[in-house]
Specification:
Largest sheet: 5 strands, mixed
Number of helices: 8
Helix content: 40-55%
CATH architecture of the largest domain: 2-Layer Sandwich
Number of domains: 2
Order of helices and strands: EEEHHEHEHEEEHHEHEH
Number of strands: 10
Strand content: 15-25%
């Protein structure tokens, strides 16, 4: 049994695996630290009474939230959580200039996708930031693209202009906005879709290949509706990567 926790810039996503199967999962905003213990108790109800939770593994791109999460896990489960990158490596080749600076979540996504597809793949992770990463047919991470997500774009317009409001982005009824709210929503929504489509077109040309395309992250379902090339949406992809990295690490330790 394994508790896997992915700490992002905005949300914390956690899942409980038993025999490689994701039994339960939950997520909440990083600002709502007080919800962690409550959600863990719900997700692990029964397990906390009937059996020990033997392992917890954390992946994080948010140091402030990470410290709190590690302390809460120790207090609740009485186990020392292991950290991706520090205690557990992500076992795949990283063919970029500075491999150590690639976000753990991007590498875990790559590990999990290759386990599923066993072929060249493009991963679109649409969260606070949007990443578009490429895995070759040998399972190596070969690089990617990082851009602002829809939420960041909306906040930026509000923060760096005098009069524009922050807008919750939804699909506009028409491309032509008839008021400020509609105009911002249209610009960010269709701008993001167009941006991703252009990335994919340029990647196909550069790679001279059309890899499988999968999506994950909070806005993945939006992209999947608008971009036909996306073959599947995998919400718990990073958690799958955490589980796989942990499993491979334990198997190597036994040898």
């Amino acid at each position: 049994m394994l508790l896997a926790i992915d700490i992002g810039n905005t949300n914390i996503h956690a899942g409980v695996f038993e025999e490689d199967i994701l039994c339960s999962s939950f997520f909440f905003n990083c600002a709502e630290f007080h919800l962690l213990k409550e959600n863990l108790v719900k997700a692990l109800s029964g397990h906390l009474v009937k059996k020990q939770v033997p392992a917890a593994v954390v992946s994080s791109v948010n140091p402030k939230a990470e410290c709190f999460v590690l302390d809460q896990i120790k207090e609740l489960l009485l186990v020392k959580p292991e950290r991706i990158g520090t205690d557990i490596p992500v076992p795949l080749a990283v063919l970029v200039d500075q491999p150590e600076k690639v976000g753990a979540d991007r590498l875990l996504n790559a590990l999990a996708v290759y386990e599923r597809v066993h072929d060249s793949t493009i991963i679109i992770d649409a969260g606070t930031a949007i990443t578009v990463d490429v895995i070759n047919n040998h399972g190596a991470f070969t690089g990617g693209i990082i851009a602002p997500g829809m939420e960041i774009s909306s906040r930026a317009l509000q923060s760096y202009t005098a009069l524009l409001p922050k807008v919750s982005i939804t699909k506009p009824k028409t491309i032509l906005g008839k008021n400020t709210h509609e105009a911002i929503s249209s610009g960010i929504y269709w701008g993001t879709i167009g941006m991703i489509k252009q990335y994919l077109e340029l990647l196909f040309l550069e790679l001279n290949d059309k890899p499988v395309i999968v999506a994950t992250g909070g806005d993945a379902h939006i992209l999947a509706k608008e971009i036909p090339g996306i073959t599947s949406v995998i919400p718990a992809l990073t958690l799958e990567g955490i589980k796989l990295a942990y499993k491979i690490s334990r198997e190597k330790a036994k040898k």
